[in-house]
Design brief:
Structural class: alpha+beta
CATH class of the largest domain: Mainly Beta
CATH superfamily of the largest domain: Cupredoxins -  blue copper proteins
Shape: elongated
Number of domains: 2
Order of helices and strands: HHHEEEEEEEEEEH
Strand content: 15-25%
Distance between the termini: 69 Å
Radius of gyration: 27 Å
Strand order of the largest sheet: 3-2-1-5-8
Number of helices: 4
Helix content: 25-40%
Low-confidence stretches: 1-8, 113-120
Length: about 270
C-alpha cells in the first residue's frame, strides 16, 4: 500500500490491483513509460553535455560541421529497434488484456485451478468454467445493472463474487456515457443503440470506485460507479436477499393498490 507504484497510481501510471486485465494495462504502460524516460534522460543529458563542452569561447570562430554518418545511422537504427520492441511487447500483452480469463471459482463458489490472466467489442466468451454476465446501462445520471435470473434491476452498486470472471454488456439509454472502474480495467463507452463489451475478475474482496468518464450532462460529476467484490457465499446471500426484497416490495405495492381501489369504491 505504501509503495511508490501505489502512490503514483492514477498520476503517472494507471491503477492496478483489482483485476488481471487492469494489471496488464498498468504493466505495459509502465514499461513504455520507463523506456521513454530513459530515452528522454539520454537525449537531454547528451544535449546538455554537448552545450557545455562545445560552447563558444570568447573570440572563437564557428566551425563548419558536415555531420557524422555513423552517429546518424546509429540513432535511426536505435529508434527503430525501440519501436519494434514496444510493438512486439504490446501485441504479446494484448491478448491477456482483451480476452476474458477463466474464473478462479466454479458456479458453486469452489476454487478451481488457477488460470492465466487473459476488453473489447468483439471479445470471445470466457474459457471453460463459470462466469457472470451483467448488462450495464448508463442513464442520466445513474448506472443500472441487470443480473441473470433477476426480474428487476440493481442500481448504483454492482456486487460480484471474488475470483469469478465477470463479463459486461455496456449500453446507454439516452446520451453517451463511459464505464470506468480504474482498478478493474480500461474505459468503455456506453452508447445508445450499441453494445460494448469488457470484462474483469476481482482478485480480492473490496469496493472499487469509478466515475462516468464521458461528459453526459449537467450532473455528470454525480454519476459515480461502484463495484463491491465479496466472497461467493456472501454474494449468494446478497442475491437471495435482493430477490426477496424486490418481491416483498411488489407484494406491498399490490396490497396498497388494492387498498386504494377498495377505498375509492367505498367512497363512491
Amino acid at each position: 500500500m505504501g509503495t511508490a507504484s501505489h502512490i503514483l497510481a492514477g498520476i503517472l501510471i494507471p491503477e492496478r490491483g483489482g483485476s488481471p486485465n487492469a494489471d496488464d494495462i498498468a504493466g505495459l504502460y509502465t514499461l513504455i513509460l520507463v523506456m521513454a524516460a530513459v530515452v528522454f534522460v539520454g537525449v537531454e543529458g547528451a544535449l546538455i553535455w554537448f552545450m557545455l563542452k562545445f560552447r563558444a569561447r570568447k573570440g572563437g570562430v564557428a566551425a563548419q560541421i558536415h555531420g557524422n554518418t555513423r552517429l546518424e545511422i546509429g540513432w535511426t537504427v536505435g529508434a527503430a529497434v525501440i519501436l519494434i520492441f514496444i510493438t512486439a511487447v504490446t501485441f504479446i500483452k494484448l491478448g491477456a488484456i482483451k480476452n476474458p480469463a477463466a474464473s478462479d471459482i466454479d458456479a458453486n463458489g469452489n476454487r478451481v485451478a488457477s488460470n492465466v490472466a487473459f476488453a473489447s467489442t468483439d471479445q470471445p466468451d470466457p474459457p471453460k468454467g463459470a462466469s457472470l454476465n451483467i448488462d450495464v446501462n448508463g442513464q442520466q445520471y445513474v448506472w443500472r445493472y441487470k443480473y441473470p435470473g433477476f426480474d428487476d434491476y440493481v442500481y448504483e452498486e454492482m456486487v460480484v463474487p471474488v475470483g469469478m470472471t465477470v463479463t459486461l454488456d455496456i449500453q446507454a439509454d439516452d446520451v453517451a456515457h463511459s464505464w470506468w472502474i480504474p482498478k478493474l480495467g480500461g474505459k468503455f463507452d456506453a452508447i445508445p443503440g450499441y453494445t460494448n463489451k469488457t470484462w474483469f475478475k476481482a482478485t480480492k474482496a473490496g469496493v472499487f470506485s469509478g466515475q462516468c468518464a464521458e461528459l453526459c450532462g449537467r450532473n455528470h460529476a454525480n454519476m459515480v460507479a461502484r463495484v463491491r467484490a465479496v466472497p461467493f457465499d456472501e454474494f449468494q446471500r446478497w442475491s437471495d436477499q435482493y430477490k426477496k426484497d424486490i418481491q416483498a416490495a411488489r407484494d406491498e405495492g399490490a396490497r396498497q393498490r388494492e387498498q386504494l381501489l377498495q377505498s375509492q369504491a367505498a367512497s363512491e
